[in-house]
DNA sequence: CATGAATGAGAGTTCATTCAT
DNA sequence: GATGAATGAACTCTCATTCAT
């Protein structure tokens, strides 16, 4: 997971160029089809350097992926801590807004995650994904638990299932930002900021209220 | 999209062996990493034959994928037509049951779909996925439209958003069947038939009723 | 050990060119340092073909080496069968002459053997070498056993040790033919046929009579 | 052949660690396959230092090999000088014992020698090996010449040939110590000290007496 | 003087595709 | 129509060597 100190001591700008090129390549092509040739020629360094920094392709991938996960976690943590007093409705909205914000700032990271979902022979794939999903669910569960304590939930709500639904819907919402074909008629892809805010509100409404009388 | 007539005139049994081997390979390895070598050696035919039948790797993939999509569509159509009179709650349950049933009978097809979600250089990937998602949403929308006409929906429900939530949740539910790390605490993966039925009911409850009072 | 039938069905001339180039390369450079690039560019075939024929570098080496061993064994067998009635002295001479003959006709094979002696990571190296040495010793032992039965040996001779000495000396004699620095003052390297015959006679004399009165 | 003075001025302990690591690597892998990376990381010095000390890989090898040859020569010289008065039989035994002793104390050096025998592109390989063999033969020749003067030899003995046989047999005996497959039924490999002493005696008996009446 | 980052040629191997039989 | 041998580009990874610090 940790690159060679050589890499860490590189000038910030060079490090970022390498990280960006690698993240781009992996998120565009998945693990196995990603080409180190492409990465190095984009960055303009020698092929050998990548292997000096990260040992092998697997090491490079784990580093890039780990970095991305850390970025997401920090982002979510900030949101949770900034909204502890707010009602559930608002907290969900803020969470999703933060997700949108993050996905727009780092579209590559989201694609990288989606890629990893779907590829079989990725190193430590199972462990990686389990940890991500668990993190996401625990985050939502802490929101719902707080809401229940505050009496914001209807009696008889199954919190596990509710988390599942919210997680899936938010995940898909974010996918739609990056992948046009996941948009599903909502017009999420290519919506401007104002429109997105409205769509987020609608989604959270629907998640909280359901569809039946 | 259409294979060479030579292929279509092959004995049924041989055709099926080729289709199965190809679907297995693509769903295990994605598009680019799938190996035609592996396919032909599994089937026991000459490598050149594949190229005679399908032109190139892309042609083979499109044929296999198209076949799978057709199977799904037929399955869903049957469910819709068999439950037109039932209440929304039941129709959703039956739809999800049918999805589970299909995924269990044809696990390869589901993996093939998930793979395609995530790979960039798949031929006509965008078109393929858009058509699938649209089909799925239209299917759900026809269910909800009928429900609204029957007065089963709460006033002010945004049907587009509701479809989006239901589609995302059902999709994730089916993913959890095949990929353990998408299970998310619900215990879907490895559940027996009876347990699955209960989970399906809970999910549909949650989707219809929301979480707030 | 067995190459792909594809290789076996090649025109004799092409097969021989491949075998020769590979044997040359291995005997010049050992296993690990031998370059498949060099082999294919010498033969003028595509790199992929070698891997089609032999699977991998290891497979190529085992085939080439096995072929060489077979050639040696056949040669020795002929000599033994052609001299069963002759006295020990003559049989040793004929054996060595045959060895010289073989080494001159196939200098590459001898170098290949010497190479294998000295390299560590050769596939199945231990098994290969044990089998060769055992074959050689058994051959000599059968000669000495026959001689003992015929009363040609001095009482109290330790046959194991005698075989060891003869084997080592003959081995070195043959090495000297190919490697000038093993010549050791005898002038074996670059000797003409007539001179070699005399040297062979001297060596066998010495082996049979020792040096003390 | 001579390293940079910088190396010679290094602390003894560091010098020895470098020499040991290099000798290990060359004797394990031969010349071309030996990795300077491995050497420096074992010793814990910078890669550049090796090139500062020895110029290039070739310089390092020549230095290490030369050192080893010197060690062997010193060893043999001691034996010769310590046994000038003894009969030939004893002197040969002592020589072989010394060889065994040396091989057991410095197994790396012997492997290094065997490696060099077999590799083509070693720098100055021919010159190196010729000098070694010549030294060995001259050593034996001085023993046999002394013996002849003392009347220990049978009339008509060809001293060149005798040296050749003795040299080859002793060489093989020592090889058998390190390489199990050269053992040839004598059980040299893994023999304890006492057994070895007996085997040495038998070998020298055989060398001196031959096999015929 | 020591360092170790950078280099790029070359290693073995895989693979979709072509085409003569 | 079926075959499978041949191809060569692309892959990951290793390595001796250089040189700025």
Key words describing this protein structure:
homotetramer; about 210 residues; mainly alpha; Tetracycline Repressor, domain 2; DNA-binding
Mind explaining what this structure looks like?
- Four copies of one chain form a homotetramer.
- Chain A is an all-alpha fold.
- Chain A has one domain (5-209): Tetracycline Repressor, domain 2, CATH 1.10.357.10.
- Chain A has ten helices and no strands.
- The first copy, chain A, has helices at 5-8, 12-29, 36-43, 47-54, 57-82, 88-105, 107-118, 125-149, 159-178, 193-209.
- In chain A, helix 4 (47-54) packs across helix 5 (57-82), helix 5 (57-82) runs antiparallel to helix 6 (88-105) and helix 6 packs parallel to helix 9 (159-178).
- The radius of gyration of chain A is 19 Å and the shape is elongated.
- Chains in contact: A-B, C-D.
- At the C-D interface, helix 2, helix 7, helix 8, helix 9 and helix 10 of C face helix 2, helix 7, helix 8, helix 9 and helix 10 of D.
- Chain A binds a DNA duplex (21 and 21 nucleotides) through helix 4.
How would the blueprint of this fold be written?
The structure is a homotetramer of 213-residue chains.
Chain A: H1 5-8, H2 12-29, H3 36-43, H4 47-54, H5 57-82, H6 88-105, H7 107-118, H8 125-149, H9 159-178, H10 193-209
Helix pairs in contact in A: 2-3, 2-5, 2-7, 4-5, 5-6, 5-8, 6-7, 6-9, 6-10, 8-9
Chain A binds a DNA duplex (21 and 21 nucleotides) through residues 6, 9-10, 35-37, 45-49, 51-52, 56-57.
């Amino acid at each position: 997971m940790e690159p060679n100190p050589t890499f860490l001591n590189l000038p910030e700008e060079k490090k970022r160029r390498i990280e960006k090129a690698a993240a781009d390549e992996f998120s565009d092509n998945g693990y196995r089809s990603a080409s180190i040739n492409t990465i190095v020629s984009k960055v303009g360094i020698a092929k050998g350097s990548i292997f000096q920094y990260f040992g092998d392709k697997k090491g490079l991938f784990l580093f890039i992926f780990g970095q991305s996960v850390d970025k997401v976690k920090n982002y979510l943590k900030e949101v949770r801590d900034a909204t502890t007093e707010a009602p559930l409705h608002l907290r969900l909205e803020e969470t999703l807004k933060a997700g949108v914000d993050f996905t727009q700032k780092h579209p590559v990271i989201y694609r990288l995650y989606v890629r990893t979902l779907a590829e079989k022979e990725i190193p430590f794939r199972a462990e990686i994904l389990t940890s991500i999903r668990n993190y996401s669910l625990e985050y939502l569960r802490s929101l719902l638990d707080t809401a229940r304590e505050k009496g914001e939930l209807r009696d008889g709500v199954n919190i596990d299932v509710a988390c599942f639904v919210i997680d899936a819907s938010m995940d898909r919402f974010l996918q739609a930002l990056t992948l046009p074909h996941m948009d599903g008629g909502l017009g999420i892809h290519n919506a401007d900021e104002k429109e997105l805010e409205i769509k987020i509100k609608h989604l959270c409404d629907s998640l909280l209220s359901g569809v039946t009388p």
